[in-house]
Each structure stands twice: as C-alpha cells, then as structure tokens.
Amino acid sequence: MPSSRPGLPEIGRTTTELLAEIAELTAADLPTRGGRTAAYVYDSGRPEVREAAEQAYLALMETNGLDPTAFPSIVALERSVVGAVASRLGGDAATPGIFTSGGTESILLAVKAARDARPDVPEPRIVVPVTAHAAFHKAGSYLGVRVVTVPVDPKTFRAVPEAMAAACDDSTVLVVVSAPSYAHGVVDPVAEIAAMAADRGLPCHVDACVGGWLLPWLSDCGADIPAFDLTVRGVTSLSCDLHKFGYAPKGASVLLFRDEAMRLGAYYACAAWPGYTVVNSTVQSSKGAGPLAGAWATMQALGADGYRELSRAALAATRRLIDGVGAIDGLTVLGSPDATLVALGSDSLDLFALADEARARGFFLQPQLSLDGLPANLHLTLTGVSERGVTELLAVLAEAADAVRPLGPPQPPAELVALLGDLDFGSLDNAAFAALLPAVGAELTGPDAGRMAPVNRLLDALPPATREVIVTRFLSALYSPHLAG
C-alpha cells in the first residue's frame, strides 16, 4: 500500500507531480467503472454523462450551500432535483424535500423530524426490521433514540407486519420499512406496515435509499414492483439516493416528506450566538454545491429514457445471474430479489474464501456476516453496465466455487475466537492492535493483501458487539502510522 508524503511541503508542488502521486495511491483501489466492483460504486457506463456531471460539479465546487440567499443557483438546482425525484415517487413539484449528502444523512434527518414531532415522549423509540440499514442505528446513537429491531421472515427476508405492530408502543415515534433492504434486495410489505402505522397515529419512513431511483424504472421495464412510495397510505417520508442508481457523483440523496411540517422538523436554526443567524436544512452547515450540481447534470444528461435503458440492462443482468447461480453447485440466491441487488448464500461453501477467489479473478463481492439467524452471504449490486460482464461473472463464480469446495463450510480457529472474545481491546493502543492483525490473518501488504477470509470467518463467529469493537479499533489503527505501507 503506497503512502502519501507526510506533512506540508515547504514549497508547493506541481499539478503533474500531484496527479502522478494520486495515480500511484489509487493503483491498488478497486475499479470504479465497468461493473467489476459489485458494491460501493455505480457506473452508468456513459462517458458523456460522467463528463457532464464532472464539469457541473467543478463549476459549483466553491459555491457554499450554507446561505442559499447568497447563492440562488442552489435553490433553483435543488428545486429541480427534488421535484424530479418527487414526481417519480408519488409526489409533485410541491412535495417538500431536502437534498442531502447521502442516505445516512437523509435517514438522520428523517429520524430527527420524527423525534422532534413528539416532544412529549421522554425516551423515544423507532421500530425497524432487523434488515434495516445500519444508518438507523447510527441515527439512534447520535440522536438519543432507542432502535427496536424486529425479526423478519427467515425465508423471504421481508419484514412481518404483525411483528412490527407488536413492537410498537406509546414511546414509538417512527416505524421504518425498506424498499428494498440493502442486504437481500427485497421490498418490505410497505402498504401493510404503513397502514398499521397510520392507524396508530405513527409516521412511517421508507428507506428507499438504494431502490428509490431504481424501482420505478424497473416497473417501466415490466418488473412486478410492490407499492412503496408516497402514494401509499401512511408513508410520511422517504429517502432516495441519487449517487446510487441515479449514477450521480457521491454526495447526493433526496429526503421527501408528505407534509411541510415534517420537513420543518428536520431543519435546525440557531440565533443564540452573536454571529450570523444559522439555519440549516441538513446536518452540514457549510457545504460545497458540487454534488448538487453533479446530480442535476447527471439527471438532465440521462433523462427518463437513459434511466429506463440502464434499469433494463441491470434487470436483465440480475435475471441472468440468478439463473446462472442455480447451475453452480453449492451456491444459492437468498430470497426473491425485487431489485437488482442479490445475496448469494451457501450451506456447503466457505463464502468468505469464495469472495477472495473472485477478487483474485477481478470481481469484488461484498461479504455480509450472519445475524440473528440470518445467514452470512455475499452481496452483489448489479448496475447498468453489469449486463456486459455477467457471463464472465458467472464463470468466475463457478471457478471460485470449485476452488473453495474442498474447504467445506467456514471453520474459524476456536482458540482465536476465544482469544478475541476475552481480549480487552480498551487496553490496546494502535501499535499493539496493529501488531495483533497478522495473528488473525489480516494482511494489508504483500501477496495476500486483500484476502479477508480469515478475518471474516472470525468476525462471523463473534457477537455483533465484539465485531463493532474490533472494526472500530481497526479503523483507528488503519489511520495511524502503525499500518502505513
């Protein structure tokens, strides 16, 4: 892993030199184009669209979203973007909305609005399926809201309306459903759960961060998509990321509300200091308008026809993948995905080793650990460019399965599991934690760099609370000099 030069140079460096170092630093990164990285990135495969987004992003890079009265371009662009999203998700140009930096910020604001609408509840709770995104747990931690998780159907991986209803009480301030859940790509029964929430006087948020700008276009292409948007009775807010299937640059999401009062609850204002009066629609105060401009340009450059074609291609790739996986001994698709997100499971193969083998052959699959009876799996997000490479992907999956089949199911060393379970990580500094990593199979440099199966096997065998401690300490050590290559 190359490392950038420490400190500030005495004399400024040239652009050529800086870009050369950036090229060196990114040489080991996963590819962001071409569909070989089946998580994290979304590629439209259209250079002209990326060029439009890049130029628009740069044009407003220095524009500060802190004060839209100083930069009226922000208001015009946000109205356009939010209006376009609302028009596809059951609203119109008048639907209240906010442009945010991503799904996590949208979710934080949705939870804040629900919490602040109930100042009479001293210990607010939100009720979520266990498959709800981790961002809701983050919102709960940041905002002092208890997150109540509810088991899902173990076969379909969808939320169970009766179980969600049973989890609600007088302290509940928000009910959450996913469209779809990231882990398995399935849409929860939004209509039933939202109606239950409405009957109880509770708001219902639809986390459509990953699917909001995909599912309507899939429906146009003939896919059977359950109702999930603002047309559904009881849905009071909805989040939709544009840096996912909107193919916009990172930092682009939209949070929609059914009514203006809820949007006002997401805002923050402060006049209790001697400086300028602060009023923010997002968690951020100062923020560059580049992501907003990039999202607007991407949407304008692609248009409805472009999104429809990209969705058709992603859907075709997903169907081919699901059919092809059925022919690979030991692999199966979990549930019946509604979107172009697929989770691969297995009772006989070491999926973590399979992910390493696939990565060595040029495809990154995202490991997902087991939780509350839900099995470990490998996640794939198929996008508009995936249709071009699905045949090769299936060949790689078959080869990788053959390579790991002799290993059998994952078997983490029992002694290491016991050691990590008993270890006091609070007593370790970054240097000590970094020294521990080779013993658990984590190699960040050398020929085995990137092979994470030993680490994932161990994490999967540990309880979630211990996993969280370990990965938090790892992140701390990663940014310290002790893990610099």
SS class: alpha/beta
Q: In this structure, how is the largest beta sheet organized?
A: 7 strands, mixed
CATH C-level of the domain at 55-298: Alpha Beta
CATH topology-level name of the domain at 55-298 = Aspartate Aminotransferase, domain 2
Any guess at the CATH architecture of the domain at 55-298? Answer: 3-Layer(aba) Sandwich
Strand content: 5-15%
SS field, number of helical segments: 16
Pfam families: Pyridoxal_deC
Protein name: Pyridoxal phosphate-dependent decarboxylase family protein
Family: Belongs to the group II decarboxylase family. Sphingosine-1-phosphate lyase subfamily.
Keywords: Lyase, Pyridoxal phosphate
Provide structural commentary.
This protein has 485 residues and is an alpha/beta fold. Among the domains are: 55-298, Type I PLP-dependent aspartate aminotransferase-like (Major domain) (Aspartate Aminotransferase, domain 2); 414-483, no CATH class. It has helices spanning 15-25, 47-59, 72-88, 103-116, 134-143, 161-167, 190-199, 215-220, 260-266, 290-325, 351-360, 390-404, 414-422, 430-436, 453-461, 464-478; strands spanning 97-100, 125-129, 146-150, 172-178, 204-207, 235-241, 253-257, 268-270, 278-280, 332-333, 341-345, 366-368, 377-381. The strands form 3 sheets. It has a 7-stranded mixed sheet, with helices on both faces. Strand 4 (172-178), helix 7 and strand 5 form a beta-alpha-beta unit. The N and C termini lie close together (5 Å). The model has no long low-confidence stretch (mean pLDDT 94).
